[in-house]
Amino acid sequence: MNEPATPALVIPQLIVGLGNPEPKYEQTRHNIGFMAADLLAQRWQLTWQQHRRFKGWFTEGLGSGGKKLMLLKPTTYMNRSGEAMRAVMDWYKLTPASILVVYDDMDLPVGRLRLRLSGSAGGHNGMKSAI
Known about the structure:
Order of helices and strands: EHEEEHEH
Number of domains: 1
Helix content: 10-25%
Strand content: 15-25%
Mean pLDDT: 80
Strand order of the largest sheet: 2-3-4-1-5
Distance between the termini: 40 Å
Number of strands: 5
């Protein structure tokens, strides 16, 4: 009997946390992407640096097996986040499949997580910019 193929584990090279650089959004649901990126940087002991070329806060390090991993928090407004992502993609020659974007989705209840390998922006301006 044939068993269904198990999909390969996708490990992103770049994790992008979407948010809004204005202080009034700092601890809001709107900035969940920034908060997730900050938590990962802290856990992986990475230091953020403002990066002009990448239009945001950027850090990189080595993950398990010596694989390079990068984090980005665009400092553009949400509807221009794609510019920062594109800058990193072009510099490091990354494919869209190697990127994980973390952002709030107002269609989901607080605390609910959805992972997708592809799809539409679903009305989210940051994702519209990225796609």
